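Bench log, entry 3. Co-assembly request; chain sequences pasted below exactly as received.
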Amino acid sequence: MIQFSSVHVLYLLEAAKWTIALSLIALIGGATLGLTLALARVSRIKMLRLAATGYIQVIQGTPLLIVLFLSYYGLSIAGYRLDALVAAGLSLTVFCGAFLGEIWRGCIEAVPRTMWEASDCLGLNRMQQYIYVILPQAMRIAIPPTVGFMVEAVKNTSLASVIGFVELARAGQIVNNSTFRPLLVFALVGAIYFAICYPISVASRRLEKRFHAPR
Amino acid sequence: MSYEFGFSFLSERWPAFLAGAWLTIQLTSVAIVFGFALGTICALTRVYAHPLLRRFVGGYVEVIRNTPLLMQIFIVYFGIASLGLKLSADVAAVIALVINMGAYATEIMRAGIEAIPKTQIEAADVLGLNRLQVIARIVLLPAIERVYPALTGQCVLLMLASSLTSQISTEELTAVAEEVQSETYRSFEVYVVAAMIYLALSLLYRIGFWAVGTVLFVRRRHLDTPL
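Structure output for the full assembly:
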């Protein structure tokens, strides 16, 4: 048995970088997909609305772990080499996209109707309405819940450990397997997650207070 | 691409899936009941109790909400075992899920309790209701009604998150799927089946919550207006 030492702490911190990298992949991919879904959800084309709603319902009704396994094994069936990073990045994108899509749909719908009407009167077309009138206001509403969701994204990267991708949670398991100090190791891993997530939570609350201040 | 999909494993293994789904329902339901109770007590503490207790509850909520459930499960299962108290996987899973659900329920219930106008409590006092009656009828029931959609959503998320307990060898739905795929090599198909069962379970929980809500909220049933 190996004694728990500073080497292990450094190893965990190194792995935390992968957690952050994976979170960024999930957020960037999820944001792109989420914006598409949100716009499809409020589209005038019924088919698009139905497709986006169906997608969101299915993903929000399935555990991320199952999505992760599906993309991991699905990729191999499609003939790609099994790569844990690709599978994890893909499923986190799919997952974050569904949740962000739903959050942002609410934000777009929260923009007062009169804004649509006013911009109609000004002769803006649908595209211009989104770019100049609706989305800038929706964005303001969307910032606090989006920042709040980032915490969920960071925490959910821990599931990538299950398909063998070495990020913080997996590194914790590896260290625990060699040192047999589960309480110490997993508490430390938890503390590192907390150090990443707590500032984001606080930021989300601050932003909410600021944006909800009476205008 | 010459892959042929095959679902023939279902004809033999469906009882295993059913048993897994049943354990998922059991784990989740116990966790929802106790987690909600814990959350309600914590929310009342958070709003009405001594500032020191409030801070303590606040700390619990922040720690749980800012760390992954997977780590919480590992700490309960492996951590407590290393202290010499050996818990079975099922018990450890339930404890971790209750602790997790409790934190989220605290935040949701706190929002509901804080939304109760002070005048309502004062009016109830004037009418001679005792402390317990005020808390149960004037504070808690309307608070639950107000946050019911959020509570439902959180419970469905908890059911989905219970899939993580497969990682400490709890024999629930995801663990069953892992076992079947390792024996049949039909990984993709097995997880498609598991995903569909989870979808059905989410629907089941949503219907269940709707039914409970209809029975519980007499006011809404009669008036059909949001609170």
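Helices of chain A lie at 6-41, 46-60, 64-77, 84-109, 113-121, 126-156, 168-179, 182-211. Chain A touches chain B through 40 residues (CB under 8 Å).
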